[in-house]
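hey m, so remember when u said the tokens were messed up on ur end? i reran from scratch. heres the input so u can diff it against urs
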Amino acid sequence: MNDVKHIESLANTLISQYGDDALTVAMLRAAEFAAELNKEEWMKWESVIEVIKTINHSPKLDG
């Protein structure tokens, strides 16, 4: 799975599991990795945050 698909999958999974709290959960995960100075995972979770924001502002209405 390429990085974009993986990040979109993570975002969709969080939204499915946590609903309106998905953004908060992603932010907490990003903060965890930032505190550990794990830049690769931190940046991945920052990308997940951006995808969640995009989905929240313009959800797909394809059923």
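this time it looks ok to me. The CA atoms of residues 5 and 23 lie 18 Å apart. if urs says something different then somethings off w ur setup not the seq
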